[in-house]
TrEMBL record:
Keywords: Kinase, Transferase. One of its GO terms (molecular function) is kinase activity. The keyword Transferase applies. Residues 309-414 form the MOFRL domain. The keyword NADP does not apply. Gene3D superfamilies: Glycerate kinase, MOFRL-like N-terminal domain (3.40.50.10180), MOFRL domain (3.40.1480.10). Residues 9-230 form the MOFRL-associated domain. This is Glycerate kinase. It holds the Pfam family DUF4147.
């Protein structure tokens, strides 16, 4: 069999991303146009502007509204305003956009339709602190949570209870209008209430849970935030609230969709694909070493899969930051895999974020070849030491194996592929 491993893996990644693009997924889920009232489009996330562009291009009548997305992730919308803000740590532009969005939905009627477009990244981009909480405090807590190793569900539970717009509050502000929320999922399990902290959906989590998460990860809690959570002032609207009765939501793209598209691409190339999981969580370096052990078992013994094959997985791992290096969770995963494989022949890998940004860096992720460790060593770089320093970006940059795709304007989180020949 003749195959170029690096190009093959790059093609799988491109296919996975295209399968969960707004252009591909949205049209079938757009509701019928409201005959009597206004159609207002709101939303947030790294792919929200691309979703808004699809609405403009396909909607039969007039639309208006406001979308907030990450810097560099905008789209050429004519009727719907697109505001760019910071991610993963919120900034003033995001705070102002969130405030304007709440004002925009005031005074709607039962005849109006609100189309809410949500993708991953919306939690940071739609950042409006609760009463008595400053933006600077939310920024500090965000940074602490990102470094703590907390899962996305845990982080978003905290965010909901410190917000004036997330956790269903934006949905309540739209009442009595009908709200249709379309979501591209970036969370393991695809819980719509976790995606971007569920701004238009009722929330079953509590202030007490939020407080317990902050204590679990030993995050310093300012006195006013402690009081906000202990008093229940940050409580969110709950399932069963009649004000959500007319609303509906649809998760239109997930990690599973991306993995299935990549699997079909692999089959067409004559490589048998195996989808390991679409919602893996855990420490990136631990997940990397487990994947390496599986790949070595396949390569040496043909168990549990016969080679040639490609092992696919998705989800969202975490990094507990202890060092001072650069790199997101995909680079960390891949460097851990590289260290564990230590040059084992005929095993190649790719790990990228489907939004095109690995954490806060400029790369989507990286690729690994059997000679990656040797090439790095020849250039004076110690892979194990760089892993301990959380410097996956530095390692793969040094050997020329970073993957820089630019913003993809969608987001179903991590995409990992390990090719065993």
């Amino acid at each position: 069999m003749s195959i170029a491993p690096r190009q093959f893996l790059n093609d799988l990644y491109a296919t996975a991303v295209e399968a969960v693009s707004a252009q591909k997924c949205m049209p079938a889920y757009l509701p019928k146009q409201s005959v009597k009232g206004r159609t207002l489009v709101i939303g947030a996330g790294k792919g929200a502007a691309a979703m808004a562009k699809v609405v403009e291009d396909t909607w039969p009548g007039k639309v208006e509204g406001l979308i907030v997305t990450r810097y560099g992730h905008g789209a050429d919308c004519k009727q719907i305003e697109v505001v760019e803000a910071a991610h993963p740590v919120p900034d003033e532009a995001g705070r102002q956009a969130a405030g304007r969005m709440l004002e925009l939905v005031k005074g709607l009627t039962e005849d109006d339709l609100v189309l809410c477009l949500i993708t991953g990244g919306g939690s940071a981009l739609l950042s409006l602190p609760g009463e008595g909480i400053s933006l600077e405090q939310k920024q500090a807590l965000n940074k602490a949570l990102l470094k703590s190793g907390a899962t996305i569900s845990e982080m978003n539970c905290v965010r909901k209870h410190l917000s004036a717009i997330k956790g269903g509050r934006l949905g309540l502000a739209c009442a009595p209008a009908r709200v249709v929320t379309l979501l591209i999922s970036d969370v393991p399990g695809d819980d719509p209430g976790v995606i971007a902290s569920g701004p238009t959906l009722p929330d079953p989590t509590t202030c007490a849970e939020s407080l317990a998460i902050l204590k679990k990860y030993k995050i310093e809690i300012p006195d006013n935030i402690l009081q906000h959570l202990e008093s229940g002032a940050g409580e969110t609207p709950k399932p069963g609230d009649a004000r959500f009765a007319r609303n509906e939501h649809h998760v239109i793209a997930t990690a599973q969709h991306a993995l299935e598209a990549a699997a079909e691409k692999a089959r067409a190339a004559g490589i048998t694909p195996y989808i390991l999981s679409n919602d893996l969580e855990g420490e990136s370096r631990d997940v990397g070493s487990v994947h390496a052990a599986l790949a070595k078992q396949v390569a040496k013994y043909g168990q549990p899969f016969a080679k040639p094959c490609v092992i696919l997985s998705g989800g969202e791992t975490t990094v507990t930051v202890r060092g001072k290096g650069r790199g997101g969770r995909n680079a960390e995963f891949l460097l851990s895999l590289a260290v564990s494989l230590n040059g084992a022949p005929d095993i190649y890998a790719l790990a990228c974020d489907t939004d095109g940004i690995d954490g806060s860096e400029d790369n989507a992720g990286a690729s690994y070849q059997p000679d990656s460790i040797a090439r790095a060593a020849a250039a004076g770089h110690n892979a194990k030491a760089m892993l301990e320093n959380n410097d996956g970006y530095g390692f793969f940059s040094a050997v020329g194996d970073l993957i820089v795709s630019g913003p993809t304007r969608t987001n179903v989180n991590d995409f990992r592929a390990i090719l065993i020949l």
